[in-house]
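Quick one, probably user error.
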């Protein structure tokens, strides 16, 4: 009897899996294929998702993103460990769950943080860690593809199949909603977490003016968080007949609904970009000065156009964005 109980206990703890991933809406979206692979590999396991609590009230919690995807069983939300008391609390919570396998999906953290995480999870908690590469970073792959291959060797074709499955789940989750009846519109997300990586408000105003001049009856939905409220109001107030400002007014589900029916989405490198791509929409992204390496998009699909400059985002001219908008608008899905 004792041996039987021991076997059941061992089987139970071996089925407890922890996924550790931190970040924004976009960071969560790009990790979804990796999470789907983990679920496929461990269909009978209880999967926990650990993330660091974001105290920014305008941020989107992973809990809301995963709600209808059947990927995660339990969520663990913790504050950053900044004291011995915080360390002890986190240690106690994770020790109690009796997890043996950890999927580490924070790929480009500084080496000192990776070492810290290795000590905490491997040495102190004795977790088996999968996916932690302390001295290497992702330099040449789209992040979602890179994370998926950390879990299981995955071809790009397989990644697209997984994205199709995730897309169906998202569409299924909103099919009974009727957020609004408008269907013929484009969306623009002019904000972003880091002000220095944003295109100037004056550029957005000029772009929208040009778009409306060539499309008199076009409807444009402006999206963003409460932090973007002031700048988006400054943009939208000029074009009241054509622009609907939904800044700070959308839940994650409503955001998914709006982007699912948009004809085209213009944005920075933000969460709306990654969600729109997953929904297979036309996307025009304006990137900041980064070492681009063609890794940000899921392939080189003609529906996904990205604009960037080695000289910074302000060197990207309105005329160039307008040209690419016109080009993308003509493409039939």
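Nope, works fine. Designed sequence:
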């Amino acid at each position: 009897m004792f041996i039987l109980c021991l076997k059941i206990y061992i089987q139970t703890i071996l089925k407890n899996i922890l996924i550790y991933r931190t970040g924004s809406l976009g960071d969560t979206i790009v990790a979804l294929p990796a999470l789907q692979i983990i679920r496929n590999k461990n269909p009978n396991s209880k999967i926990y998702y650990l993330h660091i609590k974001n105290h920014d009230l305008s941020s989107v919690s992973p809990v809301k993103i995963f709600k209808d995807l059947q990927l995660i069983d339990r969520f663990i939300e913790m504050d950053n460990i900044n004291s011995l008391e915080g360390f002890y609390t986190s240690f106690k919570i994770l020790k109690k769950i009796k997890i043996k396998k950890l999927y580490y999906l924070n790929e480009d953290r500084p080496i000192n943080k990776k070492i810290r995480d290795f000590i905490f999870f491997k040495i102190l908690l004795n977790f088996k860690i999968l996916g932690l590469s302390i001295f290497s970073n992702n330099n040449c792959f789209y992040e979602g593809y890179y994370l998926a291959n950390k879990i299981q060797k995955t071809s790009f074709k397989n990644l697209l199949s997984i994205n199709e499955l995730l897309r169906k789940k998202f569409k299924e989750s909103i099919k009974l909603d009727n957020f609004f009846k408008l269907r013929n519109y484009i969306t623009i997300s002019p904000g972003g977490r880091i002000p220095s990586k944003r295109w100037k408000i004056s550029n957005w105003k000029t772009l929208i003016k040009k778009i409306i001049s060539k499309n008199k009856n076009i409807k444009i939905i402006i999206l963003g968080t409460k932090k973007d409220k002031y700048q988006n109001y400054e943009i939208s107030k000029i074009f009241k007949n054509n622009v609907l400002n939904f800044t700070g007014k959308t839940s994650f589900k409503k955001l998914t609904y709006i982007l699912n029916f948009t004809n085209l989405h213009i944005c920075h490198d933000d969460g709306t970009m990654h969600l729109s791509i997953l929904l297979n929409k036309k996307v025009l992204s304006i990137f900041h000065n980064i070492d681009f390496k063609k890794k940000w998009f899921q392939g080189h699909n003609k529906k996904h156009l990205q604009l960037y400059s080695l000289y910074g985002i302000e060197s990207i001219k309105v005329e160039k964005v307008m040209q690419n908008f016109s080009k993308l608008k003509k493409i039939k899905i």
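Residues 94 and 125 are 8 Å apart (CA to CA).
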